[in-house]
Amino acid sequence: MAETILRVKQLSKAFSGIKALDNVQLDLKKGEVHALMGENGAGKSTFMKILVGLLAPDSGEMIFEGSHLENSNVSETLKKGISMIHQEMLVIPELTVAQNIFLGREKEVTRRSGWSSLWLDDSEINKKAAELLKQMGVSIDPEARMKFLSVAQMQMVEIAKAISNNAKVIIMDEPTSAISDREVATLFGIIRELKARGVSIIYISHKMDEIFEISDTITVLRDGKYIATKAASELDSNSLIAMMVGREISQMFPESAGNHGEVVLSVHNLSSKGKFSDIHFQVRSGEILGLAGLMGAGRTEIARAIFGLDPLENGEIKIRNLSVRIQSPQDAISKGIGYVSEDRKGWGFIPDMSVADNIILSSLRQHRKGIFIDEKSEELTVNRIISELRIKTSGTDQKAVHLSGGNQQKVVIGKVLLASPEIVILDEPTRGVDVGAKVEIYKLIRNLAEKGIAIIMISSELPEILGMSDRILVLSKGRQTAMLSKEEATQELIMKYAVA
Amino acid sequence: MNEKLNSRYLKSGRYGIFLAFAIICIGLALSTPRFFTVPNLMIIGTQVSINALLAFGVTFVIITGGIDLSLGSMVAVTGVVAATFAHPDTYPLAVPLLAGLGAGLLFGAFNGFVVTKSKVPPFIVTLGTMTIGRGLALILSKGRPVSNLSDPFNFIGGGNVFGIPFPIIILIIAFLVCSVILKKTVLGRYMYAVGGNEPAARASGIGVNRVKIWVYTICGILSALGGILLTSRITTGQPNAGAGFELDAIAAAIIGGTSTSGGTGTMTGTLIGALLIGVISNSLDLLNVTSYYQQVVMGIIIIGAVVLDSAGKKERG
After folding, report:
1. Based on the domain organization, do A239 and A276 belong to the same domain?
2. B188 to chain A nearest CA, in Å?
3. Interface contact B189-A330, CB threshold 8 A
4. Which of B189, B197, B264 has its CB closest to that of A364?
5. What is this structure's pTM?
6. Which domain holds residue A397?
7. pLDDT tens digits for range B48-73
């Protein structure tokens, strides 16, 4: 048994009386990848913030390499060897890669003192950064400005920074949420390398398949409480989900009744320069068409073009066999298309507006008397949607930003539904959503299809695509490479066409 | 209804400004007996009216995430235009009024049009039109004040109805209309949506550009109303009038809780903001504080209001 590098005991933290962490424990071994699992709000991020010194715990103890960890500030914990790679990449875009890696440590690295330390000379840090990146086996120019890097490259830079800090523990918060599958493979290679060198990784992710691929040990939190720590080999995804949600989920994906009507939407020859070309497909009423592919395959771009957010260069869109031109989302909505964006915060809802105002936003024109809002009919409609979609909110006037991810998503779906669409495009409908809420959203999507809506669902999660779709369109680099039926589709087959 | 509004307001944590206003008023009433007298309150109301009108206008604009720096210049242009048609025994009263309001409408619509079509930040667009407007006012008046205005026209800024100065009546009507637009109409709701998250508003099918053109146009009309009031009160159309008015108006909106990043704000807040500015300068007058110090005090209050507001936000998490 490997030695323990970090032991956390009875850690508790409350925010204005509400317990975010309640007697949490962790036993991190040297050189292991330890997954921290739990739904949103389970306390994972609070826990990690305490570990790196961003928050102070109310009680409990943390023993790092045999001595007590008094986490007062971040630079202190960094020096001791605990680094965190944040999900939102806390980097300075205008500085170079090397400058970012050695930010705040320029003097130590260049070993200058006195007056000469006031002048910065980048040649030394550039050389060191180049060495570091080479060691990791990634090719990134240390003199490139950070803002020109892809998310995956930024991540590598952050890891290089952690290594240069002699990190013994690296915390990775959803490192794969915004990178492509190929980049994930590179990341995992580096994680294994770090592991071999005795670095311990605390790995946070919602993606089950990844967790089982990379982690040795899994600790589960639920509602701020410690549930269990188990070897990854003792668990499978069903038992893990049951631990996270606190109940058995018998069926992740609802059955399809298979009643498909006539073709509602068909597209021919769709092209947009540099994004996608020659896309053909059709969707029937009651059918769910899955769009699969790697990140950057052009799935979201196709959806945005159909919804009128981006211009089309070429091609024809037909709704119920009538050729239509869609020039704006306003157009699209009036022609019966609804779109739930992958970027919920950016394109989905208005954070400072209430739940009610968000739900009614696309259909406000149907709830008015002259120029005035008809508050009575608004309220009735909003309440109907809240109960139909089972949105958990403290009231209709709660701000949307304070809801959980799953409930925010339901608000967006509710808004789209109120505009009475015939076609709904759902782009990554369960991104950042808890397992429990995922199941509800799957049910909701299936219900919409059963009501006769034609559905296009984009997803990067293969189990989701396989579980929900009646047919699957696979894209690769902007071209469509396969149309698979539910019966013939497998993960391997989809991947084969996705990289074709 | 009122209670519902109030509780909503309290929930949003924006009551600090009401409290501050009430405390300052009580303090003043106790320290200077002249403060809480009907004539003095009428003076404050009249003095506040123009700034409040402009502040209502710019509140709409700021809620959508924009800004309008051309308010002061619009006051001058519309004032000069109105005055040109307001000489005695020329046109009926409606002509100068409609001409002034029409000028404001066109100017505002132009602002909105350029902001939406050029994609240049509104700060820069309206910085440009601020200078253009000032130039237009000087061109139209040939650089000279336009005086000799008719009695009916001068009544607007100087007259009383049942002992209440006419500007106060205009102020109250404008406040009610603006509040209703913001809270009760589809357009008002869209303003919050556009300022709260423009991409999401667009994806929800809202004609974002149309909403923006509307708010700048409304802002232009309210500035024209301010321009007409000012011209009537000083009985001349001054091409140099209104310089710096935009800053007082923006200050009133911000003190009243309108966030410069868009998406939040209320007319009640802006009205209180404008009244607070008016009350403070009035009381500093009563206390014989020179106008130099008044500016320092005003600046501190603006910053203080925003600090208070963001502290409240943090507390709410």
Report:
1. no
2. 9
3. no
4. B189
5. 0.80
6. 263-498
7. 999 999 999 999 999 999 999 999 99
